[in-house]
């Protein structure tokens, strides 16, 4: 969550993240009561759980359900789904491992956590792919049924890690998940392969018992999901209950845990768990309603942006129209056509799609029409890493078009913030008649956190008037419509809906004459139009950059986009240890806030962490002539807070 956290909560988080011998210490808890089963219930302030298995084991569904129950319980949370790019990677191999990490707490948290306190490994590949992230003393729940000779050989285990002593540093729970699931579902008469699929629900039931998660909504979810196959629905419910009962009765799990709701972390309001892509979808729908315009999405499916197309297609009742085009170029062409026709045009994609859309984005710059280009960034170049996160499209969004074609850029910082960023991008597009880039990424898109549902009265008014009549008087007194006659404040040209009597005007990619919109090859006019379009972008009103600097620090860490959570968590750790450091985070990347240059010059050192090779740092050095220090990572994963804290401490001490 982005709300302020109490110093006590900060200190608690820092204490739990203490480093012991180069490894993160396991979470400690206080002994609480004894449950009805006679087992100890230990209270914790936070837990990080990672479910890992084959891509066909249902780890994303398992994580989603545990997250939903945790959200309804009232914990703050942050998630990190991580899945292979292949539609169906070879079973039991390292490239086929899918995982879902959930960090939940009784206080305000910002990241999915650096390392899991509990790893659920459904097979040898899942164990091998994740064991390096697991701290000594953590709990590992292993499906022993999969640790046979052939699955172990696939990932290079010559001997069983459950028997050779290599896991002695961990608290290992060897559970025959497959066998127990088959036994629990014997009465349903399902084929063995069908029954085995429910082992993820057995694991979910076990973890739900361990952490006292609610169960009713998961059972209701399963019955709804498999409503057309009632036998499968009841089998999954039975497996889920069997996992719960196993935890309650087995001697291997002597302790269960409680993590209280985060009642002090959130302002009063109604909350729900939300992913970045869902929040972005809702923000787009809200923008259409606030502008009183139809919403039109022209899109081509691409990971990790496709969820937005799927979600918007469900909301025709809000005036949303979705078009799944035959390719990326057709998608943005349709969206730009819709903008010409008076709709709020949107196109969604990832980096490879932006490359294909670039000529039409340039056309939108020339036509000066409102258009939202949603780029859910992923690892590149080319096809790259479709399911992994990256922040490497900033320079592409800034400059990736021929000619001088400036485009505003907005970047959300958390999954929930995607809602507000979508509305802000729409505000700029509609007010200034320009295409706008919104740069999210795979980490935000697939991750989730609690979102406070806003009161509609607090949302901005985005209503934008269309041109209705002549706007210019010729020397002879004739009243005419000039499509490129500009608002003196915003430099926006009028938005004339086709079919409005008397407002006929030309569109196209050839340079326009100022005012009339006629085709012009005049050098002076082209120079004027280029400078005017740039001035329009430069003049966009954006809020000043806010700096969090409680101790008059000499070092500033400046981020953008999804680095907000790891940076803020790292800054908390440093401040708890007495290190002075200031923090600021950019939402608007073009134009930059007007006070950015003054802010940068106040500090001796400016550190810019990015999931690229230093793109924002390059822009800052060029524009403000400051020695911005890059700290970069391009491994397809978000920063870890501990990693950033170490780097920032070195910068402070240097």
Automatic annotation (TrEMBL):
Q: Where is the composition biased (Low complexity)?
A: 1-10
Pyruvate:ferredoxin oxidoreductase core domain residues are: 553-623
- Which GO BP annotation is one of this protein's? response to oxidative stress
- Name recorded for this polypeptide: Ferrodoxin oxidoreductase alpha subunit
Mind telling me which Pfam families this protein's record contains? Answer: PFOR_II (PF17147), POR (PF01558), POR_N (PF01855)
Stretches the record annotates as Disordered: 1-39
MF terms (GO), sorted A to Z: magnesium ion binding; oxidoreductase activity, acting on the aldehyde or oxo group of donors
Q: Which InterPro entries match?
A: 2-oxoacid/accept_OxRdtase_asu, PFOR_II, Pyruvate:ferred/Flavod_OxRd, Pyrv/ketoisovalerate_OxRed_cat, Pyrv_Fd/Flavodoxin_OxRdtase_N, Pyrv_flavodox_OxRed_cen, THDP-binding, Transketo_C/PFOR_II
Write out the entry's keywords from A to Z: Oxidoreductase
Tell me the ranges covered by the Pyruvate/ketoisovalerate oxidoreductase catalytic domain, including all copies.
Answer: 56-243
Pyruvate flavodoxin/ferredoxin oxidoreductase pyrimidine binding domain: from which residue to which, for each copy?
A: 298-511
- Tell me the NCBIfam families matching this sequence: OAFO_sf
CDD domains, A to Z: TPP_PYR_PFOR_IOR-alpha_like
């Amino acid at each position: 969550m982005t709300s302020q956290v109490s110093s006590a909560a900060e200190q608690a988080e820092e204490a739990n993240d203490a480093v012991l011998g180069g490894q993160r210490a396991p979470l400690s808890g206080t002994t609480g009561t004894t449950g009805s089963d006679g087992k100890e219930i230990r209270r914790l302030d936070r837990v990080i759980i990672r479910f890992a298995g084959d891509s066909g084991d249902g780890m994303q569904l398992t994580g989603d359900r545990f997250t939903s129950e945790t959200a309804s319980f009232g914990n703050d949370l942050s998630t990190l789904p991580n899945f292979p790019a292949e539609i169906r990677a070879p079973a039991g191999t390292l490239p086929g491992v899918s995982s879902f990490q959930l960090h939940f707490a009784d206080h305000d948290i910002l990241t999915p956590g650096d390392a899991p306190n509990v790893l659920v490994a459904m097979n040898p590949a899942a164990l091998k792919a994740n064991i390096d992230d697991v701290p000594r003393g953590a709990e590992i729940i292993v499906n022993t049924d999969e640790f046979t000779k052939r699955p172990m050989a696939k990932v290079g285990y010559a001997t069983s890690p459950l028997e050779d002593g290599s896991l002695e540093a961990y608290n290992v729970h060897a559970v025959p998940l497959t066998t127990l699931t088959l036994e629990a579902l014997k009465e349903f008469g399902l084929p063995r392969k069908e029954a085995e699929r429910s082992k993820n629900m057995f694991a979910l039931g076990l973890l739900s018992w361990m952490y006292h998660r609610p169960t009713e909504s998961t059972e209701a979810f399963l019955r709804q999901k498999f409503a057309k196959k009632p036998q499968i629905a009841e089998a999954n419910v039975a497996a889920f209950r069997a996992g719960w009962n196993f935890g309650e009765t087995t001697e291997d799990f002597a302790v269960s845990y409680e993590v209280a709701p985060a009642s002090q972390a959130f302002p009063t309001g109604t909350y729900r768990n939300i992913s970045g892509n869902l929040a972005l979808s809702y923000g787009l729908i809200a923008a259409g309603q606030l502008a009183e315009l139809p919403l039109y999405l022209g899109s081509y499916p691409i990971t990790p942006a496709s969820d937005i197309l799927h979600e918007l297609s469900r909301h025709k009742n809000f005036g949303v129209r979705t078009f799944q085009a035959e390719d990326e170029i057709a998608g943005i062409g349709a969206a730009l056509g819709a903008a010409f026709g008076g709709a709020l045009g949107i196109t969604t994609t990832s980096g490879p799609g932006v490359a294909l859309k670039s000529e039409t984005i340039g056309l939108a710059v020339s036509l000066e029409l409102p258009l939202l280009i949603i780029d859910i960034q992923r690892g590149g170049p080319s096809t790259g890493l479709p399911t992994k996160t990256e922040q490497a499209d900033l320079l592409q969004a800034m400059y990736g078009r021929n000619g001088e074609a400036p485009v505003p850029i907005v970047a959300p910082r958390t999954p929930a913030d995607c809602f507000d960023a979508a509305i802000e991008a729409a505000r700029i597009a509609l007010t200034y008649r320009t295409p706008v880039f919104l740069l999210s990424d795979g980490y935000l898109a697939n991750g989730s956190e609690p979102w406070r549902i806003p009161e509609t009265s607090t949302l901005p008014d985005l209503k934008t008037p269309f041109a209705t009549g002549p706007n210019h008087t010729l020397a002879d007194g004739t009243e005419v419509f000039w499509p490129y006659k500009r608002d003196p404040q915003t430099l926006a040209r009028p938005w004339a809906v086709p079919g409005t009597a008397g407002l006929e005007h030309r569109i196209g990619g050839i340079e326009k004459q100022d005012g009339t919109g006629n085709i012009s090859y005049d050098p002076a006019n082209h120079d004027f139009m280029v400078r005017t379009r740039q001035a329009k972008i430069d003049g966009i009103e954006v809020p000043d950059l806010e700096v969090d600097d409680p101790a008059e620090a000499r070092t500033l860490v400046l981020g953008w986009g999804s680095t907000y959570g790891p940076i803020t968590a790292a800054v908390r750790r440093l401040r708890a240890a007495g290190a002075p450091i200031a923090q600021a985070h950019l939402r608007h990347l073009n134009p930059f806030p007007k006070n950015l240059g003054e802010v940068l010059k106040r500090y001796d050192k400016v550190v810019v962490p990015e999931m690229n090779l230093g793109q924002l740092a390059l822009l800052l050095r060029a524009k403000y002539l400051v020695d911005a220090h890059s700290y970069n990572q391009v491994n397809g994963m978000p920063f870890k807070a501990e990693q950033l804290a170490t780097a920032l401490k070195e910068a402070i001490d240097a």
